[in-house]
Backbone:
């Protein structure tokens, strides 16, 4: 009798789970074959995605070359929850995979290894399940205006967190830990009450001392995670480059700084490229010559 009950339960689970499964789309963007798209993680949209067990992802190839999505994992690498391979996806076509195990999956295109993405697979929605929206991270200055992440100024880092589960938890510590290599550069927490199917924003203030690449780790408790443990837990993270003093004008634009608010290095002036509208900083002499030749516009 007991074995019959267990079998019945398994059958119910098998039948019910797919009813709640969802399919998510990830675009392999046009121009992904070019290495430049890795700046700002723009080869894939979105670059990182969070789903639950039994959900599937469809990669849509919008590039002019074929691509393949394969798990990054070596024989002694236990960080990845499992392996998958979409096979070759020709231009205009798509490949899919259904995730049946929770964990973190890092993947790439073996022919174009600069195309790298992450899938975070969480368990069901029966409990509070906090999900950081990594694509919504904003940097602002003391005046509340968008800014590129640079040294020599306080950075206000805002990120959206949602409770995609059904549970109604008490006030929760939402943390941000920032690492430069293995060294902890910043750690802060903000307490929020995020009910089921609701979202809120956590904001942290940090003044970077040194330029370079940093790892931002977002957590939903007060645990002190390290770089060695982020891949062994359902922890959301993203890497950013902190610029020294003033970021290049194109980087400022990418972080949402309006053209009239872009800052140039001392002695340089701001103008726009006539063909693309992209900002450029150069000496007044250079800008005058380029204006005369029709390369720039005021």
Residues:
């Amino acid at each position: 009798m007991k074995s019959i009950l267990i079998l019945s339960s398994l059958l119910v689970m098998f039948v019910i789970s797919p009813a709640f499964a969802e399919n998510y789309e990830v675009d392999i963007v046009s121009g992904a074959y070019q290495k430049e798209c890795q700046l700002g993680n723009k080869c894939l949209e979105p670059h990182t995605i969070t789903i639950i067990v039994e959900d599937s992802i469809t990669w849509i190839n919008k590039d002019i070359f074929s691509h393949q999505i394969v798990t990054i994992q070596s024989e002694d690498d236990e960080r990845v929850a499992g392996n998958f391979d979409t096979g070759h996806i020709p231009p205009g076509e798509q490949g899919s995979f259904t995730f049946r195990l929770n964990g973190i999956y890092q993947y790439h295109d073996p022919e174009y290894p600069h195309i790298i993405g992450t899938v975070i697979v969480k368990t069901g929605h029966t409990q509070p399940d906090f999900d950081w929206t990594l694509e919504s991270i904003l940097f602002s200055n003391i005046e509340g205006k968008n800014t590129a992440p640079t040294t020599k100024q306080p950075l206000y880092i805002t990120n959206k967190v949602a409770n995609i589960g059904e549970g109604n938890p008490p006030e929760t510590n939402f943390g941000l830990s920032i690492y430069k290599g293995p060294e902890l550069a910043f750690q802060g927490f903000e307490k929020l009450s995020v009910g089921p199917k609701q979202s809120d924003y956590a904001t942290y203030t940090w003044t970077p001392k040194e330029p370079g690449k940093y790892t931002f780790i977002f957590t939903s408790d007060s645990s002190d995670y390290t770089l060695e443990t982020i891949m062994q837990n359902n922890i959301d993270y993203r890497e950013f480059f902190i610029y020294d003093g003033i970021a290049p004008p194109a980087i400022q634009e990418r972080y949402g700084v309006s053209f009239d608010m872009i800052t140039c290095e001392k002695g340089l002036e701001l103008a726009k490229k006539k063909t693309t509208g992209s900002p450029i900083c150069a000496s007044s002499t250079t800008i005058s010559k380029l204006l005369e030749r029709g390369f720039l516009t005021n």
The chain has three domains: 2-122, 130-242, 264-297. The mean pLDDT is 82.
